[in-house]
């Protein structure tokens, strides 16, 4: 939807008073060549855009309420071809025929549009007794022709569409209401894809689409999940089989309805639907046939193939055919990505299906070692739960070690829980961590339980910092020497510390700044 209000019948008369035929034709040429980019709105009246000129880009700002305040950064500066081109683009994105603006025939075009709208008005508000096709026709009538000038408007349009369409069924019975709301949520996903696709070649899309599209799809997914969770699928199958089929068809169309770069977000909605509908054997069998055909027709390594393969794998997983899933993924060439599976694995943990969870975690392990990234914590959390319930302590330890250094934070906690302080210290030394890089609470715990475990860490830190050869590092080294002294004293081995200090002092006798810091710390005279 537009963020500015434009009186197009007024511009029908005004356009040719600002732009003579020569400027108008040049602006039209620029518009048709696609030179207008990054069209956006600001406030109630400003329209901004960039226009590619002969040798550089020009910034155009149109004030649609006070046009004499409009500007262009080109040498001409006012009423130029760049402004005309922006007006043509603005008309197109407002649903007005640009040629009608150029020719002064907007009135005729608008009249035709009103006639078309009147014909379309025959679609009445949705009713619970109607087939889904009528619901969807109503959705499309209300929002199918919406145009936007900025990616921000995607959120505004989609949130309003959900609000208004959702409210139509406030008084409906629960089952048909759940089916209706599910279709509204899927329509919002489709609408978001269409609106984002309309902005696909703009600067605004490249920089802002990810954030705004994610927000819309996340909201739609939440609404879809809520509708499905409240839906009695068996009763829906008995009373509304047509609506179930229509919902399955909408779900099947999710891949085509939107930019390919966001297909994973739409696939999450696909999984939600089939996680509830897989018990409807007839629909699930039809979906398998469709997916097999899609996988065979898709080019290798394409998003379409990945969707089809993952869709089949998801249906197999829902009926417990895990080995089929693994074989299907491994032979298809589709990348094994943690985000595709971890939510399902969390479901196994929630349901206490520990044996199945362990098998899946083992299957994912090679990929997690390579590309775990931001999903590593979730993966290791699941392993820790499974290891606890299935007494897999040794395997858990081996997994931590195999995934270092990424698994450090988990492994450190594991060793502390085991009170294995020496291995905890060895881990810190292996990763060359200084005391200030270690968790303060962990340091306190080790100090109280076995201060001797900290001594190798302090020794390593002192030697490392001295090699920095600057006063800041020397001061920090002295700080650690004092902590080391306290640890030795606690073990009644102060003489051993004195021997080490003398050796250190002798070895670095020529490091004058270090000697000064030792004196300031009252470690030497």
From TrEMBL:
Protein name as it appears in the record: SWIM-type domain-containing protein
Residue intervals of the SWIM-type domain: 58-91
GO molecular function: zinc ion binding
InterPro entries: Znf_SWIM
Record Pfam families: SWIM
Alphabetical keyword list: Metal-binding, Zinc, Zinc-finger
